[in-house]
Amino acid sequence: SLSEKLQNVFKNLRGKGKLSEADVKLALREVKMALLEADVNFKVVKNFVNSVQERAIGQEVMTSLTPGQMVVKIVNEEMVKLMGDETTELTLKPGSEITVIMMCGLQGAGKTTTIAKLAGKFKAKGKKPLLVACDIYRPAAVDQLQINGEKQGVPVFAMGTNHKPVNIAKAAMEHAAKNGNNIVIIDTAGRLHIDEDMMDELIEIKENIHIDHVILTVDAMTGQDAVNVAETFNEKIGITGVILTKLDGDTRGGAALSIRAVTGKPILYIGMGEKLSDLEQFYPDRMASRILGMGDVLTLIDKVQAEIDEDKAKELERKIKKAEFDFNDYLDQMQQMKKMGGIQKLVEMLPGGMGGMGSKANMKDIDWDEGENALKGIEAIIYSMTKEERRNPDLLNPSRKKRIADGAGVDISEVNRVVKQFGETRKMMKQFSGMLGGKNKKKFRM
Ligand code: GDP
Ligand code: MG
């Protein structure tokens, strides 16, 4: 399996100190093979291996980790990133407002089963779902939805097999409004392969009814095909999210890794069996550990990381007080921030009351990309400094600044601006930390 193959690769990495280019390249060649065999899309594999390589070569191996574990750490982090970092929630409208979900996908992907599973989850949350039978091509499909609905204690709206799906859906909306249903889930017909009629039918429903979520059900066992199907559905009708079914089987995991990267759409849930309770929320980090199959190593890495972060925070506090905060610390802080999801994520975490900084209204007008780009510019300048220069910015005479500007590909005035601003920040931090009495000490964490 993919996990076994990857584990072998990491076991072969030995040695100490920095990860050497040769070691990393060798390991990644194996990782690449393993991923391709697991049916991960080749473009995704290529980008993935490149980003891991870029991060891994020359990387200091953390104390208490082996080089192999260090590469696992990076591979794991990049896998999580590839799958979208965080869990995406299926948003539901509040109160009696109706959220409309259209479920689509190829025949046998698991649409009807998944709809019943979802309905159970919504019902448990106190919602009132209505399931709509729009797969009119196989009489058995209508029965199947009815049977599943009954098992879940959820009503099913059906009009047999002699009406157009779009008309059934319209009638179902009226029925839902009358009967106080606040979620409508439309079950549609699949085909064995992508087919224009199927697409047209879905587009017709989408054009005539306000749909909140177009969810694609794909069978994880079909590997690369699952990803191609997702790409096509997304291009033709525009999907909002994916549910990956049959992950309980002996699947190769490739679909889970590629879908987000290829379609840009999140995986919302995963199907883990035929029972109506076998539907789980999708967690990118859990999926990455599952694919890597290295739970123990990952737990160890988490522990090591937590200790390092704690030590760093303490050291930083001390430096700020003594105004020893230098460009190396600045880079560290930038890394921390990236780990937490960038500036936007950080600002969003601020309470809305803090000068209104974190309030949604205020954030709408901010160009986050511009902010991130400005930071990248500063980072490029700092990376062009020697370690010594970062530690002691007073060393920065005009010729050094010129060298740094050339290295970062910016004008020397940019370098001057960054150095000057940094000096001012440092002064301000010193004053600020002086202002904080002993009582507030604990609250002051960078
Ligand atoms: P549809 O044609 O897309 O509506 O697919 P169905 O809902 O009828 O499912 C097709 C088959 O896949 C059925 O036998 C389901 O029990 C099975 N199935 C659906 N989801 C899962 C899953 O997550 N795991 C497993 N093992 N089987 C599933
Ligand atoms: Mg079906």
Give the class-level CATH name of the largest domain: Alpha Beta
The molecules bound to the chains, other than polymers, are: guanosine-5'-diphosphate, magnesium ion
Shape, principal axes of CA atoms:
elongated
Structural class by sheet pairing and helices: alpha/beta
CATH-defined fold name of the largest domain? Rossmann fold
CATH superfamily of the largest domain: P-loop containing nucleotide triphosphate hydrolases
Give a written overview of the molecule.
The structure is a single chain. This protein is of the alpha/beta class. It has three domains: 2-86 and 292-296, Four Helix Bundle (Hemerythrin (Met), subunit A); 99-282, P-loop containing nucleotide triphosphate hydrolases (Rossmann fold), CATH 3.40.50.300; 323-443, 434 Repressor (Amino-terminal Domain). The protein contains 19 helices and eight strands. It has helices spanning 2-11, 21-37, 42-56, 67-82, 111-124, 139-152, 165-179, 196-208, 224-236, 254-263, 284-292, 295-321, 327-339, 342-349, 360-363, 368-383, 387-391, 398-408, 412-435; strands at 99-104, 129-133, 156-157, 183-187, 213-219, 241-245, 267-271, 279-281. An eight-stranded mixed β-sheet has the order 3-2-4-1-5-6-7-8, with helices on both faces. Helix 2 packs antiparallel against helix 3, helix 9 packs parallel to helix 10 and helix 18 crosses helix 19. Residues 349-359 and 437-446 have low confidence and may be disordered.
